[in-house]
Amino acid sequence: MKAMNPTIAGWEAYTQSRSPEIREQLLLQYLPLVRRVAGRMVGTMPRSVRMDDLVSAGVVGLLSSLDNFDPTLGIKFETFAMNRIRGAMVDSLRELDWVPRSVRQKARLLERTIEELTQQYGRPPEDGEVATRLSVSVDEYTRMLDEVNVTVLLSLDDTFPTQNGDGACLSEVATDPNAVTSHDRVEEQELRDLLVQNLKSLPDQEKLVLALYYYEELTFKEIGEILRLTESRVSQIHSKAVLKLRAGVRRRMNR
After folding, report:
1. Helices and strands (DSSP H and E) totals, the chain
2. What letters, b where the CB count within 10 A reaches 16 and e where it falls short, cover 78-106?
3. What is the tally of structural domains in the chain?
4. What is d(CA 161, CA 246) in angstroms, rounded to the nearest whole number?
C-alpha cells in the first residue's frame, strides 16, 4: 500500500469517501503518536500497568479521532487527537479500578481542603496553609501529594460540564492554553477561559512543571533533571498544581 501524506486534500478525501484503505493508512501514520502518549503515561503509573494495554486503549481513541476530525477547521490533527487518545487510556485505567480506596479518599480530602482555602483567601493556598488546615506537617502534606499523584493524573481528564455543551477538561488547557477551536460553543469557551485564568494564577514553578509535562511532553524524570529536583518532588508539584486548578475552577463555577 502506497504511503500517504496526510495533507488537507488527503483528509478531505477520507472525510468524503470514508475509505477503509485511507483510514488504515492514517491509522498507521499516527500510530507513533499513540505509542508516545502511552510511553509518557506508563512512566507515572504502577508497574502493574502495561505499555501494551495503554497502546491498545489509545488506538481506540485514535480511531475515534480519525472518524471525528474535520480538516477544514484548520486544527492540527495531532492536537485534536492527543486528548482523545489520552482520554481513552484514562478510561481503560478507570475500568480496572486499581487505585486503592484510601488513596482516592485522600485525593478527595486534599481537593476539598484546597477548594475551601481558595474560597477563603480568594487565591491558591500555600503549602503551610493547607498543612495547617489538615493538622499535619508540611512534610506530611508533600508526602500525601506524592501518594495521590496517579489519581490526580486521571482527574485531569475529568470534564467540567456546561449547560448546553460537552464542557472542557483540564488536560486540554494544560496541553495548549491558547487553543481555541471552532468546536467550542460560547459557554465552553468561557469555561476554557476560566481554566486559563486559574492556570496563570499558579506560582511560576507549578506553571513550569505543567508546561514541561503537557506542552513540551517531558517525563517527570526529565523535568527533574532540568529543574534539579527529584522525580518524586516533580510529582508532588504536579499534583499540587492540578488540585489548585480544579479547586479554582470549582470555586468560580459555584459563585
Report:
1. 13, 2
2. eebbbbbbbbbbbebbeeeeebeeeebeb
3. 2
4. 13
What pLDDT, in 10s, does the model give residues 79-100?
889 888 988 998 888 887 777 8
Q: Give the pLDDT score at 138.
A: 96
**Domain boundary pick from 68, 96, 124:** 96
- pLDDT score for 83: 82
Tell whether 229 and 106 lie within a shared domain.
yes
Nearest Cα to Cα of residue 209 among 226, 233, 234: 234
Provide the pLDDT confidence category of residue 75 given band limits of 50, 70 and 90.
confident
Full domain range(s) for residue 215: 101-253
pLDDT value, residue 165 = 47
* Residues 168 and 160: beta-carbon distance below 8 Å: yes
Is 11 within 8 Å of 19 (Cβ atoms)? Answer: no
Of 30-34, 117-121, 122-126, 195-199, the one with minimum mean pLDDT is 195-199
pLDDT at 200: 85
Cell output for 184: 467550542
Q: Examine residue 215 and state whether it is found in any structural domain, yes or no.
A: yes
Q: What is the CA radius of gyration of the chain?
A: 19
* CATH classification at residue 108: 1.20.140
Instruction: Please answer whether residues 167 and 161 qualify as being in contact, where contact means their C-beta atoms are separated by less than 8 angstroms.
Output: yes
Of 89 and 194, the one with more pLDDT: 89
For the domain that residue 45 is a member of, what is the CATH number?
1.10.1740.10
What does each C-alpha distance from 246 to 33, 84, 145, 169 come to in angstroms?
27, 20, 15, 10
Which residue from 94, 96, 101, 66 is spatially nearest to 81, judged by alpha carbons? 66
Specify whether 119 is located in the same domain as 41: no
